[in-house]
Amino acid sequence: MERKTLVLGVIGADVHAVGNRILDYAFTQAGFKVINIGVLASQEEFIRAAIETAASVIMVSSLYGHGELDCRGLREKCQESGIGDILLYVGGNLVVGKQEFNKVEKRFLEMGFNRVYPPGTMPEVAIEDLRKDLGL
Amino acid sequence: MERKTLVLGVIGADVHAVGNRILDYAFTQAGFKVINIGVLASQEEFIRAAIETAASVIMVSSLYGHGELDCRGLREKCQESGIGDILLYVGGNLVVGKQEFNKVEKRFLEMGFNRVYPPGTMPEVAIEDLRKDLGL
Amino acid sequence: MDLANRTIDPEEFFRQRQEVLNQWTTGKDVDFEEAVAYHKSLPQSKVFGHKLAEGKAKGITFAQPRAGVALLNEHLELLRFLEEEGEADFLPTTIDSYTRQNRYAEAQTGIDESRMVGRSMLNGFPAVNHGVAACRRLIEHLKVPVQVRHGTPDARLLAEITLAGGFTAYEGGGISYNIPYAKEVSIENTIKYWQYVDRLVGMYEEKGVSINREPFGPLTGTLVPPSVSHGVAVIEGILAVAQGVRSLTLGYGQCGNLLQDVAAIRTLPLLAAEYLNKLGYSDFDITTVFHQWMGGFPQDEAKAYGVISWGAAAAALGKATKVIVKSPHEAFGIPTKEANAAGLRTTKQILNMLKDQSLPMTEDLALEEKMIMEETRAILDRTLDLGEGDIAVGTVRAFQAGVIDVPFAPSRYNAGRILPARDSQGAVRILDFGNLPFHEDIKEFHRERIALRGRDEGRDPSFQMVIDDIYAIGKGMLVGRPKI
Amino acid sequence: MDLANRTIDPEEFFRQRQEVLNQWTTGKDVDFEEAVAYHKSLPQSKVFGHKLAEGKAKGITFAQPRAGVALLNEHLELLRFLEEEGEADFLPTTIDSYTRQNRYAEAQTGIDESRMVGRSMLNGFPAVNHGVAACRRLIEHLKVPVQVRHGTPDARLLAEITLAGGFTAYEGGGISYNIPYAKEVSIENTIKYWQYVDRLVGMYEEKGVSINREPFGPLTGTLVPPSVSHGVAVIEGILAVAQGVRSLTLGYGQCGNLLQDVAAIRTLPLLAAEYLNKLGYSDFDITTVFHQWMGGFPQDEAKAYGVISWGAAAAALGKATKVIVKSPHEAFGIPTKEANAAGLRTTKQILNMLKDQSLPMTEDLALEEKMIMEETRAILDRTLDLGEGDIAVGTVRAFQAGVIDVPFAPSRYNAGRILPARDSQGAVRILDFGNLPFHEDIKEFHRERIALRGRDEGRDPSFQMVIDDIYAIGKGMLVGRPKI
């Protein structure tokens, strides 16, 4: 079986490192090649890593509430960089405060993300979606 | 100063004795003559005690949620017994569950009570009302 | 008096039974042999005593709510909600106050009015009026074991109907469902009523059907010294086992001081086993139940969650077999099902976090345990003396003499002479001993602790201190300090 | 390296100051002498260190929330709400994440967008952008003392502005606001940045103005062994006092096992005083802060109240001077003001009920204290050795060598080699020691405890055990047991 590559990171000024370590472990265990760019990652760092490793998916975490500001324009930047079709997943506490998730999800889907996950999602959910979206 | 007499009791099938003991103590300390008929008191026992002691007020407690069933018709029975003008106070957890107090109060005022107290009222509140209503 | 602590004569039992089953029309549907067969058809997962014994072996604490409404469908819906959304380990059926006073006609009015106005006008489920088949419908639609919880001095008919209805646990006792729940009923009578209930349970046990029995531990729920409630619990345990009860859950209501509460829940089964063995009984299994704070609650829900959590923590650290849970609506009386389930989930969270932890033995904890053991033994030994060896007779005389004395009880058969108050750490001590048969050493210990508090507060111990303690929790405090 | 643990040379300080105050336009409004006068005009009731010292003397525990939004009026409204409805003893001003990275232009975008969309687009209050006068408006409209809480590796400008703005307490430190909050910033640099902040506080102190300093205790907030966070707290305390800080609050994040948590909060000030004295410092006042559970929270609010309550109980029983409070919305990030106030009231209820109680000393508690003391001393002694007596130099080398090693930290200046896991009672132990300078006896103790858990669960200790522990509380458990 082909080993697909994922770029994993925590976007913006966010320093939440615990979940990042766990996702890295879980995705690696599930058979993916994980390029982990860690916390405090800019949009440019995600894209650069994705191009360099020919990744199939960019997986963005945001735990600190600024996700909306930080993620805007990521799809457009991907298009400009020639990887416009790459899968974009995002998850975490994406907005400030407890908001209805379906509204949050809608906002991020409109921004060009393929999958949006609420707080507390287990890695297994994303792994299943990855397999589906990548035809594994 | 004239010492006014109060009949104090817990109506119906209610056995909550702690508050009854405290009210007895507080009203007595405040200078009233307290005729305490205790828990499990019927409407008839309240009225009989009020007539026998020429009481100015009947003070009904109900802590167990059946207050609405137990208090119905008390004003009418007082009228039939010739003490139709006696002051009727009631307080406690008067209905089953957490309901808006102003609706509960309205229901009991319509039943002929002069004062209705919500859960957690301190004795001092009732003592002040007693002084006002009795012109002390 | 013709009272005695011995198995009811079968002839006498069946004479009473005729009378009891005729007290209300639903009594005619009780058929003991058929009920035994029905119980045997139930899976073990629905048998209260079985699950309690499992939990005790594993050292975990289960959570159980209180709940009951007037109508069958609504009551079933409520219990299913608590099972699903509240993650309840055990379920209750709380009985309404009219049924508790055997006023079945008034309960019927309550049922009818509830149907009319579309909300429960009763504070519980009137199981006698609903009858055997309705009870079985509950048991069949619920996954976990269900207990009858009430406060009924004469609960013979209620027991006949609910046990035939498939309930596998029954709360109450001749003292604990009299003294805090009645004004004019003699202890002699209620002990007899409850010997009947215990004998009925014994008959089920003899047929191989497990019915758990639980004396009501907290009594008046307000500043009851542990030795007083322990004395009553042990007596009711003895009275029950004497009639053939085997699965026994003894209860204690949280006082609020962690050390005293843990000491109390740990000593309770030891004392019961000690006196049961002493009187020659050996065929019993004792588990414990810890009641979260039974006194006044803060009206604010966030604060109520704090009180609930502290009760859950004490239950877990004391390794009680189960804990009876309050809701964030407690200050307003009966909770919505959502609030009830929320109290359960808060409790479960604490129980799960603490299930691997316990309070280690310390000098202070050992002292609390020693005091509770000595005081309880003093009460029980004097009670046995007064009864010339018969605990039933002794109990009646002990209440007459004030040797057993429950604070703030409505019953005129209770002396009502003792006065409890908290010490500076919030433990419940005794300010006025009445006729409690305590040695001078014990009394000196209590006096010293209360005197220390008096010094802390710059006032002499008095009834005002007691009142302050009763109001304290509603104001967020354990000890009722004077305003500064 | 030109780093050393000695008072910054005044010339160097004023050289840096020019630079710092020019980092953003609001820096020009800082006037030190005028700020000193402003502080002296504040009533003592608004001075953080003063109230802390009072509480410490009385043996009570205060409650403080986290809170911050983008706009001034909304932030003030939020804090007033927490003061009134939450009964907060201390207030915070939590700073947004852009400001923490010194990205003031992005913070400005966040302010502007927040104005436009009518809700806070920032996770805190961007105090640098708002400037000195805005800060003073907060202080003037609030009754209780207010602290700056953030997570800023280079917090020099933020300190200049907020302290001139009347804040009387400032969280952070060169290690605790670097290792968990930055990826690429060297420890040498952040120690220097924080020596500047501490020196600034020292200058206020020399003018008779009390500014409390609080290193951030919980670090990454996830399974941090107490000796690791204690080591960091003591070092930051020394670095602060060396610059003239006097009012010092040392912190610890709840691990979840009551004995370990109480042992930790009790030993923290002892260890700090021991090393401060050893290095020749004597003019300081140490208080403690206990952080309620910093790891994942259950999404269910009722369960979250349980976690909050358990943190409050541990803080009270450990006699921490203050406790930092979580909200029932914790699993979703930043709470509404109502949820924040509810978490406070739950906490206050527990603190009030437990204020007269403490956990008595026991063999188990003494053992936990002994382990924490020995482990922390091992880390500190080796750090001092590595620095040839200089704690600042030693710290840089200790991180290089993995002698200090924080689990799950984002910083590449942290070795990241140790692996913690819970034992069967939920206490945090160490599975892989990396280069922690522990004696074989200490290591054997940890290995034994974790091996016991492995036996309980029928599996070998591994990273999966660690992951299970991280997810556990979200699922209601403390110890992450495998599914059965």
Automatic annotation (TrEMBL), chains A, B:
Annotated adenosylcob(III)alamin binding sites: 13-17, 61-63, 93-97
Catalytic reaction annotation: (2S,3S)-3-methyl-L-aspartate = L-glutamate
Pathway(s) per entry: Amino-acid degradation; L-glutamate degradation via mesaconate pathway; acetate and pyruvate from L-glutamate: step 1/4
Statement: the UniProt record of this protein carries the keyword ATP-binding: no
Alphabetical keyword list: Cobalamin, Cobalt, Isomerase, Metal-binding
Residue ranges occupied by any B12-binding domain in the UniProt entry: 3-136
One example GO MF annotation: methylaspartate mutase activity
InterPro entries recorded: Acid_CoA_mut_C, Cobalamin-bd, Cobalamin-bd_sf, GlmS
EC category: isomerase
Requisite cofactors: adenosylcob(III)alamin
Entries under SUPFAM superfamilies matching the protein: Cobalamin (vitamin B12)-binding domain
Highest taxon listed in the record's lineage: Bacteria
A matching Pfam family: B12-binding
Documented EC number(s): 5.4.99.1
Function: Catalyzes the carbon skeleton rearrangement of L-glutamate to L-threo-3-methylaspartate ((2S,3S)-3-methylaspartate).
Subunit-structure text: Heterotetramer composed of 2 epsilon subunits (GlmE) and 2 sigma subunits (GlmS). GlmE exists as a homodimer and GlmS as a monomer.
Name of the protein described by the UniProt record: Glutamate mutase sigma subunit
Natural source organism: Desulfitobacterium dehalogenans (strain ATCC 51507 / DSM 9161 / JW/IU-DC1)
TrEMBL record, chains C, D:
Keyword check for Cytoplasm: no
Enzyme Commission code: 5.4.99.1
Chain residues that bind adenosylcob(III)alamin: 68, 123, 180, 297, 326, 330, 334
Xref: SUPFAM superfamilies: Cobalamin (vitamin B12)-dependent enzymes
GO biological process, one term: L-glutamate catabolic process via L-citramalate
Catalytic reaction equation(s): (2S,3S)-3-methyl-L-aspartate = L-glutamate
UniProt entry keywords in alphabetical sequence: Cobalamin, Cobalt, Isomerase
Known role: Catalyzes the carbon skeleton rearrangement of L-glutamate to L-threo-3-methylaspartate ((2S,3S)-3-methylaspartate).
The protein's name in its UniProt record: Glutamate mutase epsilon subunit
Protein source organism: Desulfitobacterium dehalogenans (strain ATCC 51507 / DSM 9161 / JW/IU-DC1)
